[in-house]
Amino acid sequence: MSVISSPGFKKYLLPGFVFQSVVIAGGYGTGREIVEFFLQYGPLGGLLGMLLLSTLIWSLLLAVTFEFSRIFQAYDYRTFFMKLLGPFWPAFEIIYILFLLLVLAVIGSAAGVLLKDNFGMPYFLGVIFMLIAVGFLTFRGSGLIEKFLSGWSIILYIVYGSFLVVSILKFGPAIRRNFIEEPILSGWALGGFKYALYNMGVIPAVFFCLRHIKKRKEAVTAGLLGGLIGILPGLFFYIAIAGFYRPALEQEVPSVFLLQKIGFPFLLIIFQIVLFGTLIETGTGIIHSVNERLQAALKAHGKSLKNWQRPIVASVLLLAGLGLSMFGLIDLIAKGYGTISWGFFAVYFIPIITIGIIKIKKNRANKIID
User: Fold this and answer.
1) Domain count within the chain
2) Contact at 8 Å (CB) between 93 and 77?
3) What is the pLDDT of residue 369?
């Protein structure tokens, strides 16, 4: 815990671990997202999309975003996009809220499926557990959220690493054969591009922990590292699931499918506990970003968001997401994520790499960025 609390960790690594924490449940925790955006293009094709496009885009985007946030002291998405888009900033919020509800629907569905299929518990009990955990964390605020997200990410790295090692030992020949023999299917570049775009919607959930960054070098380094930190657990899983390339394409929760194939009950239980924690991570991160946005708006009018009001916001958003989850996990990811990716492309990606970079350059002489 002392490492997590160190200044160097908070400046260079914390943003990446928070990003990975928030991106995982909506990005690759169930494994369905990895299948949808990468594996369907063939094991090697998906790997190219993941490394050459998604990771690179994430790292560059995070670096520019972190520096823009530092320059303008924008630590919530309302302030950030007011500085970036001016009077057009509500366009981002509309898309973000839709995205937020979609992600909450995915993690709500995943939580219910995990407990129902593997522990025999009622579907809605998973949602209730998550509601309580997210409500508690949002009530306690940024300090505890930083520690929980970064600490759980480190645990997740250990579990995913073990997961990869066991898979290679048991299914190494099948993994190697599929990477060598299966063809690269067209569309892998677009898949990697869209995956990077829709996941960049969680970046505003990282803003609250950027207050530790004081210099340009820290912002750029943290951003470049953030992309790598964010993708590595997904890469571990991708290599492992490649051994079951074709059957995995039809699985609603491929991560559970693969663990059942591994046949280690203890590892399956541990992974499911960690996976459930990632659902809490993502839910907490994106809901906390809304609370921070509300706090910034109220502060501008001389008011503040009370601690007891934060869990109420969390409850309302989670229940709204639960309503969407009834549409089914595969349909939500295949249709919802793919569509909303282009919204973020228009209101975030293009503006930050054009207007954002221009504004960063114009402010280089300002002492705040030295």
Assistant:
1) 1
2) yes
3) 46
Torsion of CA 145, 285, 278, 311, to 10 degrees: 70
Token code pair at residue 334: 């295949």
Note whether residue 1 is domain-resident: no
Residue 320 inside a domain? The answer is yes
Identify the pLDDT of residue 103: 79
The residue whose two tokens read 């924008």 is 74
What letter represents residue 166's amino acid? V
Residue-wise pLDDT tens digits, 175-209? 999 999 999 999 999 999 988 987 888 898 899 99
Tokens of 104: 């909450």
Residue 141 region by backbone torsions, left for phi larger than 0, else alpha for psi between -120 and 50, else beta: left
Tokens of 205: 């959930």
Q: Which residues contact 283 (CB under 8 A, 6 or more apart)?
A: 25, 104, 107, 130, 134, 314, 318
Q: Is residue 4 part of a domain?
A: no
Going by C-alpha positions, the residue among 105, 36, 28, 98 that lies closest to residue 329 is: 105
User: Which residues constitute the domain of residue 298?
Assistant: 10-369
| CA–CA separation, 244 and 130 (whole Å) | 31
Residue 2 lies inside a defined structural domain of this protein: no
According to the model, what pLDDT value does residue 30 have? 74
Distance CA 262, CA 271 (A): 12
Confirm if 188 and 48 have CB atoms less than 8 A apart: yes
CATH number at residue 98: 1.20.1740.10
Predicted pLDDT at 327: 58
What angle separates helix 77-85 from helix 90-119, to the nearest 10 degrees? 140
